Amino acid sequence: MKMLGVDYGDVRMGFAVCDKFEMMASGLETVRVTGLRDAAAKIAEKAASQNAERIVIGLPKRTDGSEGDRAEKTRVMIGFLSELTDIDIDTIDERFSTVQAHNMLSEAGVRSSKRKKVIDTLSAELILQSYIDRRKNMKND
pTM to 2 decimals? Predict the structure, then answer.
């Protein structure tokens, strides 16, 4: 199944896709967004252009697992998105995806100025890969 992974932020949003065999996520791009409706429209467009059968959106939770303002905004945006597409939408806990992406880029020696340009795409890739791995583990149980 081809899936689209999304790391939604207030200003930027990263995209990733996986192959139809759900083996590996690959980053696509980062785009600027101007609000919740704009983000939903851009996700719907990207999902259609990628022939995605499922959209996976990172849900920002607090370290204790509870949901705060950012998670609420994400859920509102998902509501707008569901009005624009019939594609199944799932969420996955993305608590540490951005931190993990920063660490990976730092270890790779990517300078701070370049990190800003790719951090959301890499976060989307990590979110989608986590979702893929979770699905595989559930199938193996």
Answer: 0.89
Q: For 54-92, how does the pLDDT look when each residue is reduced to its tens digit (9 = 90+)? A: 999 999 888 888 999 999 999 999 999 999 999 999 999
Residue 95 gets which letter from DSSP?
T
Report the distance separating Cα 19 and Cα 51, nearest Å.
11
Rounded to 5°, the CA angle 138-18-78 comes to: 80
Look at residue 101 and tell me whether its pLDDT is greater than 80.
no
Tokens of 84: 């624009």
Q: How many CB atoms lie within 10 A of CB 122?
A: 23
> DSSP secondary-structure letter at 76?
H
Other beta carbons within 10 Å of 95 = 16
DSSP strand E in 12-124: where?
12-18, 25-32, 54-59, 88-93
Higher pLDDT, 120 or 97: 120
Q: How far apart are CA 28 and CA 116, in angstroms?
A: 15
